[in-house]
Amino acid sequence: MLPATRRTLLHLVATTQVQGRAPSLVAALVRDGRPVWAAGRGEVDGREPDPEATQYRIGSITKALVAVLVLRLRDEGLLDLGDPLGRHLDTPAGGEATVAQLLSHSSGLAAESRGPWWERTDGDLRPAPEDLFGERPQRHRAGELHHYSNTGYALLGALVEKLRGEPWYPVLRREVLLPLGMERTTYGPEGPHAEGWAAHPWADVVLPEPLTETGLMAPAGQLWSTAADLGRFAAFLARGDERVLSAASLAEMRRPAVEPQNADWSASYGLGLQLIRVDGRVLAGHAGSMPGFVGAVLASPEEGLAAATLANQTSMPEVVSLAARLVLATADAEPRIPEPWRPDEDADLALLELTGPWYWGPRAMLLRLGAGRTLDLAPLAGGGVRGSRFRPEEDGTWTGLDNYFAGETLRVVRRPDGTVSHLDLGSFVYTREPYAPEDAIPGGVAEGGWR
């Protein structure tokens, strides 16, 4: 990191701590999977907090970790994201919602558990699943809209426990936290840790917040962590780790799964991850809060940058925006330098015959060959949604990964002599010439051709 960049980042952290009136604040930045900068401001037990060692409660960032466990279960074939929850779990509510709807907060379940306020009262007050829900647990039809639900993630934690045969946190520690090096991420606080405080709205005085064990609601916001540990998690969100979850599954989590939450499309939600769009960049991660604490983890895979921020103040939205500002400031001050271009030594040369221009009717498209036999179809001019990336399948076809053709099948159709006739993409025909009479054009070509 350049000295000027370091000073810019430190200034952002220092002013946020002052303006948000946080007793303490820590932040960490990672680039291309490596920690490159960290800072702490304020005091914990009379000294500046240590981004590597000082724990804070992370609140709903816990949800993103639980979501990783659920995707692991999916990748192992133990469930399908389209499965109704009731297929796997005997639940007093939410059984009709799919696993994907629970992950994306579109299950329609109530936002909070039955009173009293779960974040400030002991979990023993809600000893059984039926104690989580009031008289009207279903507030909307499943899949109807995005409605943030803490109770939905309580059910996802129970789902992990049911399919793994042990409580969700030991599973999380063994399968996610330790492989990622997140040894300071724990169920409860382990010193050194910050105390939770509320700052008076009209005076510079603070009030201690209660420390609660949330019981069955724990998957929604129980965990404690450090800025450095969350930096490791942020790096994972940007890159994936085959020991935990593949890059492809992480990319699936980062795609919007529900309608954007506001008219300007600046925020949406994927499978357990919040998505925000700032200055043309999409950042993925999660914010979290519990009484006395607030934090955020945000990653930009395109920039290879990710940031984590934590503070011990109840109401401090500035900490969330700080994580985004750290990423954007670094991206602007020190743009990512791409890796050198090199020829693909493993390219399948037999696929070169598929590359180049193709025509969907009169629309000119370009097909490129990528690493691992992937294909990229894009308009030659004018943009549009008909472009897509495709992954190869064992049967010789390709499956669309994004945009209009996501999930659709691309087939190469050959003539009797083995030469390529056309591409069939979800029944659309792509030919080497625009409406050539000799090509396989559905509906035929008007007699006389172009005029």
From TrEMBL:
Top-rank taxon: Bacteria
SUPFAM superfamilies in the record: beta-lactamase/transpeptidase-like (SSF56601)
Positions of the DUF7586 domain: 350-432
Domain Beta-lactamase-related per the UniProt entry, residue ranges: 14-330
Signal peptide bounds: none
Pfam families from the UniProt entry: Beta-lactamase, DUF7586
PANTHER family in alphabetical order: D-ALANYL-D-ALANINE CARBOXYPEPTIDASE, D-ALANYL-D-ALANINE-CARBOXYPEPTIDASE/ENDOPEPTIDASE AMPH
Name of this protein: Beta-lactamase family protein
Species of the source: Streptomyces mobaraensis (Streptoverticillium mobaraense)
